Give the backbone structure.
Amino acid sequence: MFKKRVFLTALAVFLLGVLGCKGKNESNGDAFLKEGKYRNAVNSYTNALKKGKISKEFYDNFVISYVLSAKQTAKKNPADDIIRSYIEQAHKYLPQVKKAATLDSVVAGLAEIGVAQVKSGIEYEYTLQGFRNLDSALSIAKRNNLDIRVAHSARQEAEKSIVSQALENAKGAANDITTEYVLLEAEVVAPDNEELKKALDKVRFKNRSTWLIFAEDIIGQRPSRMVDKYGYVMYFPNMSFSTTGAVGDIQVWNATGNNMPFEPNKLKIVSKNGDVANGKYTGNGTCTIDMVDQKTGAFKPTIKPFNGAVGELRSEKSCYAKISFAYSKGFDPDYVEYTDSLSNIGRKYFGQK
């Protein structure tokens, strides 16, 4: 019995040493954290974790040191890449955090960092990074049943800032294509902003009969509403609408890199509420292809009619067709979308006056 009691006592002391008492590195981290030397705190806590001697409150302090260090850096230079690195580490250890107060501090920190990055106006990639931090703050607050007001207010502030800047930049844009692009950058992070929607509707109406090819690839993620140049680019030479349908013509450019059939019956019209109606090919389909001139031996553009309801859409060439859409009353057309058999996509918005 005596030996067993001694063993249990020794085990308790061992566990207390590992999980309860703090080693030198963690204690140094606590001191640095208290003094506002957050990068030093991060380094000390990292060393403590490597040695495996940490207290129960370690992860709370470790995570908050990462967040506060990122916030401190963002105030000086919102484009410093160390910010993203520190936030990634904070997210990595976030599940180990025990205290609600720590989570509240993380939410507030991410919100401040996000606003600083968005308002910096340095580069668009940092705007996207800022909104990711703002959305993370909201997500953490909701997931842990915390007060979301701080994060929500910060996102509204950031959204107001980017929309205001986009509308201002659009006024000085060189042409309608540039105008739509500038507004699209803001729409990626503020899709529900009414003022922005109205501005986009107007310029999209002007750009109905214009090719729009945008190709921003930012941190591995294309903004969701941008037109991807590696898909299908479309415009409407003519399109008229009634309460129950739309009739007109469409021109489609193949930027997928592959020769593909073009099937107008696969076109879909989508309403602003997300309702969908199928397209119908109504004739006059032609595609441009390069053929060898028998006399000169050189390639020359040639117009080739559809084979039935299908066109031959060569890479970097275009097809034309007449189309129609039938839908129910109350359908508010927003855009036309085309998807081929390889899941390449094209989308064109109508806009409104």
Observations:
- The radius of gyration is 29 Å.
- The chain is about 45% helix and 20% strand.
- Strands lie at 232-242, 245-254, 260-262, 268-271, 276-292, 299-305, 311-313, 318-326, 333-339, 345-349.
- The longest helix spans residues 149-171.
